[in-house]
Amino acid sequence: MSEQVKIPPGYALVWSGQFEYMERAEERLRIVVPATLLLIFLLLYFNFGNLSSPLVVMLSIPFGLIGGIWLVYWYGFNLSVAVVVGFIALAGVAAEIGILVLTFIDQAVAEARHQRTIRGDAGCLTKGELMVAVLQGTAERVRPIAMTATAIIAGLLPILWGTGTGSEVMQRIAAPMVGGMVSVTVLCMLVLPVIYGLVLQFKERFYSSGTVVEAEELLKNSEA
């Protein structure tokens, strides 16, 4: 532009107004978004006390991005500060749904271990027992999670369809959340339990192999 416009001596062209605001906001978001994801992961780690469960829960965030990105594209919204704010809010809700699913699966697995102990059957859970526990834990959360997602979507739809003052900004915040709530609810009920079931199987195999090695060492020490 400076090459096409003749500027009198002593004058200069600088970007200002809405463009300057967007540039500053994008610079802040480059810090806020990674910091938000890191904070969510740390809170999950402190809650579960291990690395595998938080990593599985973090998968719920991409599940939400699928529906959120699709609805933003369908409405023709460009990536803006409002859209990013909607995705940040969606990340928190998606992580909460993932926590609910994994928590009740862990409770079902603990109950399966307790029942196995009562029967006097020592050792690790079988693959079938783990899958039954995963299904039971997931089934207990289907209705509450569906009700939560329905309530959130019902509250956001009037904002998404609103036409009043400031609706342009509010629509861009609501769109990622509405689309993301649909996809994260479905995928957290179908895909997340399967992934966590595979993680639990790996843990059981590792625990079983460690138990066998420990038993062999005890046997050698007793023979010596």
TrEMBL record:
Molecular-function GO terms, alphabetical: xenobiotic transmembrane transporter activity
InterPro entries, per the entry: Acrflvin-R
GO cellular component: plasma membrane
SUPFAM superfamilies: Multidrug efflux transporter AcrB transmembrane domain
Keyword rRNA processing: no
Transmembrane segments: 29-48, 55-75, 81-105, 145-161, 173-199
Keywords: Membrane, Transmembrane, Transmembrane helix
PANTHER family: CATION EFFLUX SYSTEM PROTEIN CUSA (PTHR32063:SF19), PTHR32063
Record's protein name: AcrB/AcrD/AcrF family protein
Origin organism lineage: Bacteria, Pseudomonadati, Pseudomonadota, Gammaproteobacteria, sulfur-oxidizing symbionts
